[in-house]
Amino acid sequence: MTRNPVGWFEIYVQDMARAKAFYEAVLRITLQKLESPGPHEMWAFPMEMDAPGAAGALIRMPGVASGGGGTMVYFSCADCAEEAARVLQAGGRVENPKTSIGEYGFIAHASDTEGNMFGLHSMQ
Q1: DSSP state, 39?
Q2: Contact 71/54 with Cβ under 8 angstroms?
Q3: What count of other Cβ atoms lies within 10 Å of the Cβ of residue 79?
Q4: How far is it, in rounded angstroms, from Cα 124 to Cα 106?
Q5: Poorest-confidence range of 22-26, 31-35, 60-64, 109-113?
Q6: Full-model pTM
Q7: Are the CB atoms for 34 and 82 separated by under 8 Å?
Q8: Residue ranges of the domains in the chain?
Q9: Are strands 106-111 and 93-100 parallel, antiparallel or unpaired?
Q10: Which residues, other chains included, contact 94 with Cβ-Cβ below 8 Å and sequence gap of 6+?
Q11: pLDDT per position as a tens digit, 51-94
């Protein structure tokens, strides 16, 4: 099976309860706790093992800061303007509203409650 290059992502956070509430409100999903050894806490985004696209989790790890780090995660949406509108209500910031990227659809950029910037992508 041919795969896309990204197989997993992690979004580092300082306040897990706040970050979890933010992503659940914006994306209208429920994150699930991942049991893992060590001092870190992880909550996974919904994932289907045989579906295309990457799965990932929020992670709180001692000594690892959240915020800008040069990697951008894009969440797929039906209409990225809808999720962008929920960002403010959930305590985040919209950095760039819905913008056309031509034949590739539309994107918006936002920052979560932990200072992490992320993208939203839709075809309409």
Answers
A1: S
A2: no
A3: 16
A4: 7
A5: 60-64
A6: 0.85
A7: no
A8: 8-62+71-122
A9: antiparallel
A10: 84, 87, 88, 108, 109, 110
A11: 888 889 999 988 888 987 767 899 999 999 999 999 999 999 99
pLDDT at 1 over 60: no
Give the DSSP letter string of 89-122.
HTT-EEEEEEEE-GGG-EEEEEE-TTS-EEEEEE
Just give the CATH number of 8-62+71-122.
Answer: 3.10.180.10
**Residue 86: phi, psi to the nearest 5?**
-80, -15
Question: Residue 58 carries which side chain, given as an amino acid letter?
Answer: L
Q: Please report how the helices 16-27 and 80-89 are oriented relative to each other, as an axis angle in degrees rounded to 10.
A: 140
**Hunting for tokens 């893992």 — which residue is that?**
36
Q: Percentage of the chain surpassing pLDDT 90?
A: 69
- Token look-up 């936002």 returns 110
